[in-house]
Amino acid sequence: MQLRSVSELLTQNIILPEIEIKGWVRTFRANRFIALNDGSTINNIQCVLDFENFDEALLKRVTTGAAIHIKGELVESQGKGQKVEIQVNYLEILGDSDPETYPIQPKKHSFEFLRENAHLRTRTNTFSAVMRLRSALSFAIHKYFNENGFYYMHSPIITGSDAEGAGEMFKVSCLDAKNPPLNDEGNVDYSKDFFGKETNLTVSGQLEAETYAMSLGKVYTFGPTFRAENSNTSRHLAEFWMIEPEVAFMDLAGNMDLAEDFLKYVISYILENNPEDLEFLNNRLLDEEKTKPQAERSDLSLIEKLNFITENNFKRVSYTEAIDILRNSKPNKKKKFKYLINEWGCDLQSEHERFLVEKHFKCPVILFDYPANIKAFYMRLNEDGKTVRAMDILFPGIGEIVGGAQREERLDILKEKMAAINIPEEDLWWYLDLRKFGTAVHSGFGLGFERLVMFATGMSNIRDVIPFPRTPQNAQF
Ligand code: 4AD
Ligand code: MG
């Protein structure tokens, strides 16, 4: 007999006389109804058994969390709530689950509790739905780039360069443990710890992706990146996944078009392919909204928010225009931002970004042409000599979801910018080579994958959209 999945069986319209299924028990009611889930869908399949046909000792072992093997007949359901159910004629316990100690009880658990049980939290409806959507979004991302002529490039995890020039890197600790490099005093020299060289975990694959764009034309990376910033917010991780397309002969306007088209595509993909998981999360959020005071409730449901993205143009606004708007705005009852916008040139805080998106424009915003001094060294300097061709995409409820730029393609200006922040030319000689041999306009961006998953699932904490979150407090598992 062929093993079936719950999702496959639930869509059957016909009676199937001999089916076989394996999964985990969600609940067992009245010694008769097993709600079984195998992770293939948010829905459980009801398995009905006639307890007189089974050994009492066996039935006692049908507890929440136990892995079981069932054979039987798929029939039209007699009860409400499901179209089909399984009439069980064979039951085997594959793995017991002690009801006294199994952490995932059939009741509502707090997300904090489930974070401490991250190894089991995907046994719950919410986390299984989130992680199926995470998987679907990854697939949609590869599909988009594949359909649009991009090559997938694997950028290195261990690097000698700081792609963002911000110094937020984790050092790679002594790999050559048997032969550690020693300093003059004979102690381990942790500054030269990768076989005699200083290396870090990558903060971004962009610089390496640029080398591939300048030969293969259109490329993207999709891998883990690391930031040693001590940020304890609901939007920052020390280890997160980033998607970084990089395209030769494309300017900033093309970069904005690409990012908008790409985001619309991946969101449309899940709307079309994952309706059950989205509906479940949509309802979860509607229930949560009901507990809030009217004034704090969201105007749109999760699914409406996702549709809104796919149906509306993103608003493109320059940094200078945004500063004017913010200076003339009264954001709240106190009519003031916590961080005041004092002068042109200051960095925007998340309260400003969210005000622009959620209150002022009420749609996703692409901010561009930022002051050079608040952005990374590799961004293309504009003719005004003070702004760079940077772009950040801001999403409602999230803030910055994408950061990108047209890259500085002129050797002399790039060298000046590196010198200004003390990046030695020797460190990036290969990056400078791209500007010596066949340089050209090129652009790209980085999408924080977890921020996209947060938006797509309506989860409010980034720790709940990655399997095993790494934050300053948490690196267990
Ligand atoms: O704005 P960032 O730092 O840009 C870069 O790294 C560029 N090299 C990208 C490029 O042009 N190829 O990061 C890009 C995105 C941010 O917009 C945000 O969504 C996400 O990565 N991000 C984080 N996500 C989770 N935790 C963190 N600590 C993050 N830092 C950035
Ligand atoms: Mg950024």
Can you walk me through this structure?
- Pfam families: tRNA-synt_2 (PF00152), tRNA_anti-codon (PF01336).
- It is an enzyme of class 6 (ligase).
- It is a single chain.
- The chain has about 475 residues and is α+β, with helices and mostly antiparallel strands.
- It folds into three domains: about 5-100, OB fold (Dihydrolipoamide Acetyltransferase, E2P); about 125-165 and about 205-465, Bira Bifunctional Protein, Domain 2 (BirA Bifunctional Protein, domain 2), CATH 3.30.930; about 170-200, no CATH class.
- The chain is about 30% helix and about 20% strand.
- It is built from 13 helices and 16 strands.
- Strands 7-10-11-16-15-14-13-12 form an eight-stranded mixed β-sheet, with helices on both faces. It has a five-stranded mixed barrel with strand order 2-3-4-6-5. Strands 8-9 form a two-stranded antiparallel sheet.
- Strand 5 and strand 6 form a beta hairpin.
- Helix 4 packs across helix 13 (about 450-455) and helix 6 (about 250-275) packs across helix 8 (about 300-310).
- The longest helix is centred in the N-terminal third of the chain and has 23 residues, at about 125-145.
- It is globular.
- The two termini are about 35 Å apart.
- The site of 4-amino-1,4-dioxobutan-2-aminium adenosine-5'-monophosphate (4AD) has 22 residues, from strand 11, strand 15, strand 16 and helix 13.
